[in-house]
Amino acid sequence: MKILLPLLITMWLMLALAHPVHSREAQGLDQPLDLANRCGDGVSEIHFTLAATGATFPHEHIQAVGEAQGYHVLFDHVRPFLQAADLAYTHLDGAMLTGTDSQFNYNPSLATALREAGIGLISMATNHSLDRGPAGLDATLDLLDANAMLHHGAVRSDASERPAFLPLTLTRGDATLTLGFIAATWGTNDLPDPFDQVNLLYASRSYGEQGELRASMLEAVAQAAAATDLVVVAAHWGFEGQSEPAVSQREAAHQLAAAGADVILGAQSHTLQPVEWLEHEGRQTLVIYSLAHFLASQGAFQAQSSSATSVIFYVGVARAADGSVRVTGYRYLPTMHSDADTRPAPIQPGSHESVLAHVRTMMRDPGGLRQLPASPPEERVEVCPPLVLAEAPETPLLGDFAQHYRSLGERTPQPLEHAMITLGLPLGPPMVELAGDCTTSLPVLYTERQRLELHADAPWPYRIIGSQLGTYSFMQRYPGRSIERRTDLSDPAAFGDSRFRAFYEQYGDLKRFGYPISGALNEDHPETGVPTTVQYFERARFELAPLQPPAAPLHAQVRLGLLGRELREAGGVAALCGLPLTPAVVTAGAPTATPMPASGFILGLSSEDLSLIGAAATQLAQSATPLIPYIAAFALALALLAMLGLAFNDWRNRRQRNTRQTYRYRRSAYERFARLPPAGSNQAPKAQAQPEPQPHAADHDDDDDDELLKQLLKQ
């Protein structure tokens, strides 16, 4: 035994090294995956979540814990995370045959423990599927059926049919999602398969000859794509001990994607391998090349290949109002075997930092933006979770707009306070409008300080871009004045105030605020009327808050103008693009962009309100047509009576005053004081060439005014 163990380890290392290592750097898989996630605008969509794990492969001392404490304890640390998805998946490496003692033959209680942990879907296509022969595979399939667990990848030895895929349905409320699940493996460790029970991936059954996909495999994917909403392929492929996919894996992934696969979940290498988005004729396929081990004892190789590290991989799927289905992206929970290498557990904050960095590298998420917290989830895990702000609970942020509030386009989570400082509250749900180029239409979200445009096919940080509201506001306030685009941000004169520079550097940068387009300006604040120092940027207006002490926080000294609110009140995109104020075009299910009033006449009524009023007026006119002559005669009589009443009242007033009303002439100050000598002079007034104006009635009313004017003239 002392000789056998080193020999086995040496053979394992030689086998791993016998296959060329394909560096992630050469393949681009070491770079952050900035296309994830693709959450869209989130309007009128129902979201589903699939939780995928690596191999369930309990070695002997894990089984010993299960026998002593019960197999359910093996999943105590991860059970809440598995149950927080619509469907949880694993693949089973081995058999469950009673009366047999083997390293990869497990107690049937394992199946019950998996089901109670939340696992509902299993791949049975692995290289260990026939470790206990056809009888062991038959017994395992019967056990899964008895536990109501769905599976694909192998059939009973006496099966008359071999389904190309497993159809299954997920339900959320009134929405349903159909999945076509296909599992296949590179081979069965050269063990014979006399009844062709195990589904094979490649034309060759040899471990070292993985390459050409079987035609039957591609046909199965095509059939599933035609019959279901989403195709998920579980591929047991690749070479042990490698942290990067082999060329054969990547080539096979592209072929499966072209055939119609939407999600590919890899396994076999005993290690994590990277995530990738594949594109084929406008379709997107999400691939994780290996999910490593979910339940196994591989701690002896942790230092060399991180083989005791894995993830629970959450895949998001959205069904839109028009019935279309798409993969939105992924999130993940880093796990590591704990309790003496006997069970998986989330990696806790502040522990195993190097392991966590390795997981994030494989997930192509260096800042942990898509990583789940290690605390058990209180609700269902969402790959595209909405964001409800306490200040605006009636307007939840959805889709990529919610993702932008959480990250502000960065690769690491940002404090929500920063989003409130730079964006403010949302002013309503997303709508579809013209973009800033005034040509293309896309989803838009108005916030207090911005108008956010969703460019769905762009990578982050360019997925969500603010409109150039600073430029628009400057041109409206200073028509004809040239824009001073200050592109040298290192120039001390680029910023009108040192606090503006500090705010720019702390809360954003070029992609968030754009270049400065003016120097410091003094303006009356549009809301308070208080004189304010401002500076315009392409996408913002910086304002110095008055009466703030030097020790005040930077965000209290510098504030962003409410340009999003100002633009919306001015007419939205119609004002931005100089278009007539008409309703914006919206997608099905999206709210209508209500135009601002074109004049004071419509008093803020929407086009729908005006249509209702017009219809009511038309109906009233039609019903009143026979009565028009009588109504006209009655109106004429009322008018004559009113005129007679006014005439009588006027005659009575004249008689009471007993005088004719005349225009009351008031002498000017010149007429009253032009003949007076200067103050302090003994001269008599000079004679006037023009006659003295005749006194008018009520001239005595001027006496008080005369005295006041005399005093003023003396002064």
Gross geometry: elongated
Beginning-to-end CA distance, first to last residue:
122 Å
Radius of gyration: 39 Å
| Average pLDDT over all residues | 84
Low-confidence stretches: 1-26, 584-621, 657-702
Q: How would you describe this structure to a colleague?
A:
The strands form 5 sheets. Strands 1, 2, 3, 4, 11, 12, 13 and 14 form an 8-stranded mixed beta sheet that branches. A 6-stranded mixed beta sheet has the order 5-6-7-8-10-9. It is elongated, with a radius of gyration of 39 Å. Among the domains are: 234 residues, no CATH class; 99 residues, no CATH class. Helices cover 30% and strands 21% of the residues. The protein has 22 helices and 24 strands. The longest helix is centred in the last third of the chain and has 30 residues. A hairpin with a 6-residue loop joins strand 17 and strand 18. The protein has 715 residues and is an alpha/beta fold. InterPro entries: Capsule_synth_CapA (IPR019079), CW_Biosynth-Accessory (IPR052169), Metallo-depent_PP-like (IPR029052). Keywords: Membrane, Transmembrane, Transmembrane helix. Belongs to the CapA family. Pfam families: PGA_cap. This is Capsule synthesis protein CapA domain-containing protein.
